[in-house]
Design goal:
By secondary structure, the chain is of the alpha/beta class. Helices cover 51% and strands 13% of the residues. An 8-stranded mixed beta sheet has the order 3-2-1-4-7-6-8-5, with helices on both faces. Helix 1 runs antiparallel to helix 10, helix 6 crosses helix 11 and helix 9 crosses helix 12.
Length: 408
């Protein structure tokens, strides 16, 4: 057995171990299915939803209308739309909402999403602060589902379930399955107090906690990741509400997806350096000892497996080329034995991983009120492993070189 096979065994075994661990945790730490949404309006906290906008003229009106349709007392809900120096017609679209009593419009020079969040922070005294990206839309009961978690005084932040909005084409269909898996993973991480991202679409924070930990930071263009890691470093509780459904527009093409994921992965790697004390630190429990190290390991593992696949394909082509030069063109021989079953360890673990991934994905979809099975799932399994290494490799290079990435 050569070193490549040894590393491959380690990567596959740890991946399988982690998925089994997530599945066991999901059933072992099951949450109550009782959701009390009939709450006393007088006891509800005041809430401010911040909508940072940069060149969102085609979507921001729909985003604001979905917020106005939320099932939440209007006198306790403030919406702050921040035009972060847009160069398209976003400002004009926002002006159409200026006279609405719940909506406040701010205009500022472009400085990035974190500066837009902090600009809005200075214009509200709400008890709970949230963010909604200007290309996302919420279901009417999403906010009330989230707010009930703040009845627990220990809760600092709550994350939602995020789905792809109107998935069309191969790239968005693939992401639809991916987001289903992310819903499951985010929910299990919350059950282990191990969430490390508070995503831009509709995550909420207790105002007193933001006052304590400080405002949003650049965070290597991933301010939502940085904020959550900061909360975890201070042992603040971050949880998840799977019934709070948010729809977000996703990249339509491979270059758009590459650019988005390059930013996400680069941000994770650079923030991992900034928050390295959380890794393998027993003070941070499952987050420090398992979730963060495995997230980093899976990144390198995916790059390694893809590289090994490419190498083996090249070796196969080289052998066939030599054989062609030696004996000329010959018809391939096909051997089939109905009593032969390939029981190699690598194949067995790979099949187990695929089946288990389907199970986790199905559970994630069910958590967010979808059916267990859908056609996007096999598309994800067939294609995702071949395109992910593209941005993982690029992000590794950029993170090592510390070149930075552009938001758009």
């Amino acid at each position: 057995m050569d070193i490549t096979q040894i590393v491959m065994y380690i990567v596959l075994f740890l991946s399988l171990y982690f998925e089994v661990f997530l599945l066991i945790t999901f059933f072992e730490r099951s949450e109550s299915k009782e959701h009390n949404t009939l709450v006393d309006e007088d006891s509800l906290p005041t809430v401010a939803v911040i909508v940072p906008c940069f060149n969102e003229e085609t979507t921001v009106a729909g985003t604001l209308r979905s917020l106005l349709a939320l099932s939440y007392p209007s006198q306790k809900l403030q919406i702050i739309a921040v035009n972060d120096g847009s160069t398209d017609g976003t400002r004009e679209v926002l002006e159409a909402f200026r006279d609405h009593e719940q909506i406040q419009i701010l205009n500022k020079e472009n400085g990035g999403k974190h500066t837009a969040m902090n600009a809005a922070l200075a214009h509200t005294q709400a008890d709970v602060l949230g963010c909604l990206d200007a290309d996302s839309f919420v279901e009417p009961d999403a906010l009330i589902q989230i707010i009930r978690h703040f009845e627990d005084s220990e809760v600092a932040a709550v994350t939602p379930s995020i789905k792809v909005y109107e998935a069309r084409g191969l790239i968005q269909t693939l992401q639809k399955a991916e987001y289903g898996l992310a819903i499951f993973v985010r929910n299990v991480f919350a059950r282990m107090d191990s969430l490390f991202i508070t995503p831009g679409p509709f995550s909420f924070f207790r105002r007193s906690v933001i006052n304590e930990v400080g405002p949003w930071q650049h965070g290597h263009s991933t301010e939502d990741l940085e904020m959550c890691l900061r909360l975890q470093r201070l042992h603040k509780k971050v949880t998840n509400e799977p019934n709070a459904i948010v729809y977000t527009k996703t990249p339509k093409t491979l270059p758009e997806l590459f650019k988005q994921r390059l930013r996400w992965t680069y941000g994770f790697l650079r923030n991992a350096v900034d928050y390295q004390k959380l890794f393998l630190n027993p003070k941070y429990g499952t987050l420090g000892m398992l979730v963060l190290p495995m997230s980093l390991f899976s990144l390198f593992g995916a790059v390694f497996l893809f590289s090994a696949l490419i190498w083996n394909v090249l070796v196969l082509f080289a052998r066939e080329f030599v054989r062609f030069q030696t004996v000329g063109l010959t018809a391939p021989t096909i051997q089939f034995d109905m009593f032969f079953i390939n029981t190699s360890s690598i194949l067995t673990i790979t099949i187990a991983l695929v089946v288990l991934t389907l199970v986790l994905m199905g559970l994630g979809k069910r958590l967010a009120r979808d059916s267990y099975i859908s056609l996007d799932m096999p598309i994800y399994l067939v294609l995702y492993g071949f395109i992910t290494p593209l941005w993982l490799t690029a992000a590794l290079y950029k993170a090592i070189a510390n070149t930075g990435v552009r938001w758009r």
